[in-house]
Structures are given as structure tokens and as C-alpha cells.
């Protein structure tokens, strides 16, 4: 009998492309059957960045919703067409969409993801679940992060203390603890790759700093680092979440005006250190804590090196060691959330998002 599998589609705040994973779930473990990635063309990435900064018309927003929906469809079809897809029964697609604005603390709170799920269902002929964040927000939550529930289901162990840190454009943390007082908590720690990518693009024309090579040419500017760490977001209590509407190129330039002696590579190195420190300061104090990294940041050699240094004596490694490749954790999470939705099971953790209670997340688009 073929195992029931789900497709997870994910494009995070880095806005570099769409990850698609074909995955099945059994006994609290995820089995990856196939993967596929569709990169965003430069004009799409540029337009998405503009929209995330409130620079765009309703026509541009609607057109991009359609265009991203077609690209998400391509990602789903790419993973479906792989040889491994014939070995499973695909039940549904869970599509995160592409976040362009996330404003959980406004009077009229909202979170907006593009990538029309009607197109995905139409183009693939597969039931599609999307719009996962807004039901949690309707219940008074932040709508993010949602992945700690998945981290708990896949990686939680009642006898171990561990943290899963996803470093995408924004970094979020899931602390899975064995202490009875606080079994799990999670939130967005702040910038992951978003600031490093924005500064690298602005200064070099490259979309990211491979392995932190440019950052490695500079030094940490302590004055600039301290100034950045004084941003009120870092001192906010959880639950909290954020996005590129806050941590963007404009945010960087506000601070560097006050530190004209910082060189381009110094700023890049300082932004990397900002990501490291803002994660490390949020880790619980536990002698036996283990930290596992997933997301694009896991591929930045210098970032991982600095995390190991600053987080010592905690052991820092990638989620590969606990059974899931770091590139596919987020996409697998939204496949899992789709399964939860279709089974009428809640997908949020109120202790993480701040919602009034557990809720079934997402809207279903039938083929």
C-alpha cells in the first residue's frame, strides 16, 4: 500500500525562491520522498521586495499574487514529476505562500501571503491548503511562528532539552524543554539572513554573501552592534514575530548614519554578529541544551562558526543530525500543517503565538 504523502511549499522572508518537498509522516517522524526548488526570477524578487516595503499599487499586488501562484504551481509539479512521487499517494498540498507584509501588532492586525492557492489547486489537480496564519491572528495571536508545533511533533523528546533555530530571512526559535514548567516556547528572535542579504545586494549586487566570505573581510563594529541591539524589538517579551517590513535596508541605513567610520565589510560582519547575538541571547540556560539549525543560514559557514563560538558550551549543529535536512524543514512543516487541517486538528501553539486557544488553521481549496 502506498504511503499517504503531502507536498509542502515554502518561500520565506529571504524571497529567493520556492522549496517543494514531498513527505509522509509516521510515528512522529517525517520521511522525505522528493524535493524540488524553483528560484524567483530577478524581476519577481525585485517586485516582491518593493511590495514588502509598501511600494506598489493594487494592480501590481494582484498581478504578483497570480504570478507567484503560477511559480508555486511549477514547484509543486516539479516535485510531483520526480520518480519518487510515483511511490506515494499525494493527499494534499500545504502552501505557505510568499509573505509580503506581516503586521501582527497593528490595531487591525494582518498577515499577507501571495501565491494564489486557487491556481495551485487548478494547475495540479490536488487539494491545496493555504492561508495558515490568519485564523491564529483572528484568535488574538501573532500568526507566527507556526513551525514550533511541527518541531515539537518531529523533534520533541521528554528527556532532552533542545532548541530548533530556523534561520531564514527572519530567525525563529523553538525551545523544547524537559522541565515541567515550560515544555515549549518559541518566537522570532529578529533578523536571520534578511539584513545581510539586503546589505550585500545593495553594496555588491549579489543576492547573498556566500559562506560569509565578504563578512569575513571585515570586523565587528562594536558601536554599531550595540546601537542595533538597542532596537526595541529585541527587548519585547514573547509572543512576538516580525518580518522585512521592519528589518530591511532602510533599517540598516538608519543606524550606519551614526557610524560613518564603518566600512562596507565591517557592516556586513556586524550584521552577521547581530543575527548571532540576537539568537544566542534567547537560548534557555540549561547545561545539557543542544541547538539544531535549519534554514538557509545553516549553509553560511561563518555564521555557523560564530554561532558555535558564541553559544558555547551548548552544542550547535544542523537538523541533519536529528533526521531532517535543514533546507526542507520549513516546507515539511507546511505539509504537516496541511495534514492537520484536513484531519480537523489544530496547528498552532497558543503558548507560542499568543492566541486564545488552539485553532484549526488554513483554508482548503478543492481540485
TrEMBL record:
Pathway: Amino-sugar metabolism; 1,6-anhydro-N-acetylmuramate degradation; Cell wall biogenesis; peptidoglycan recycling
InterPro entries, sorted: Anhydro_N_Ac-Mur_kinase (IPR005338), ATPase_NBD (IPR043129)
Residues the entry annotates as binding ATP: 12-19
Record-linked Pfam families: AnmK
EC number(s) per entry: 2.7.1.170
GO BP annotations listed: 1,6-anhydro-N-acetyl-beta-muramic acid catabolic process; amino sugar metabolic process; peptidoglycan turnover
Claim: ATP-binding is one of the keywords in the record: yes
GO molecular function: ATP binding; kinase activity; phosphotransferase activity, alcohol group as acceptor
Keywords: ATP-binding, Carbohydrate metabolism, Kinase, Nucleotide-binding, Transferase
Catalysed reactions, semicolon-separated: 1,6-anhydro-N-acetyl-beta-muramate + ATP + H2O = N-acetyl-D-muramate 6-phosphate + ADP + H(+)
Entry keyword annotation includes Transmembrane helix: no
Enzyme class (EC, first level): transferase
Family per record: Belongs to the anhydro-N-acetylmuramic acid kinase family.
PANTHER family per record: ANHYDRO-N-ACETYLMURAMIC ACID KINASE (PTHR30605:SF0)
Described purpose of this protein according to its UniProt entry: Catalyzes the specific phosphorylation of 1,6-anhydro-N-acetylmuramic acid (anhMurNAc) with the simultaneous cleavage of the 1,6-anhydro ring, generating MurNAc-6-P. Is required for the utilization of anhMurNAc either imported from the medium or derived from its own cell wall murein, and thus plays a role in cell wall recycling.
Official protein name in the record: Anhydro-N-acetylmuramic acid kinase
